[in-house]
Amino acid sequence: MTILSAVLLGLVQALGEFLPISSSAHLVLLPYFSGQTYQGLAFDVMLHAATLLAVLIYFANDWVVLIKNGLSHPKSKDGRVLWYLVAATIPAGLAGFLLNDWAENVFRNPLMIAACLALFACFLWIADKQTGAANGDPDIFTAPFMTVFLVGCAQALAIMPGVSRSGVTITAALFLGMSRQASARLSFLLSTPIIAGAALLEVTKLSAADFNAPLFWGFFSAFVGGLLVIGGLMKYIKTHSFDVFVYYRWVLAAAIVVFYLWHN
Fold this sequence. Notes:
globular, 75% helix
């Protein structure tokens, strides 16, 4: 892999991880469309680790409050949310552990990715029209346990490329009555432990030879891009719906099907 390719993949990861368009789908599809060899799940996870660092830094104040109160005052409003997030991470963690082989092979069929992109775009569109327009609850710290847990259960579906981890969690949160900004914020906070767990699991499979210049530049571009994308999205959804992402997913799904049929 060249450094330029790694940087491009890092930027794709940053855009796909935090925008509801599926980073894993794009990381699979980019080599598929260009005719290159898939870079492997381990490289994907290292890019996820870069975006993990970005979300930790962007939401550092939230995490300081959550961890401080979660450990010292677990029954307080802020303290409870930390443990809600921990519990909500379990379904996605189990899905990743039990379906890891399927994630690397079975789920990477282009037509399956296209179907997931299109179908879950429909769900996002419906949820955004239903709750987003009505604003919803703006505060994640008042969300009940079941709301956070159900959003965590939805996150488990993101094991399939094309679903989009951020997309499916934002969709679930919107359906459960949260505002666009609160849904995105909860999605980003939920991403932290699951991405960290996946990165720790895969990093043990890397050898010293894997830590090369392309990996470094891919990590760096994903980290910087992640910070910019998070900030941009949080500002964008203050005054805009998720429609642009829905339309993009539908167009991409159609393009995948056409490309697949043309070459098979």
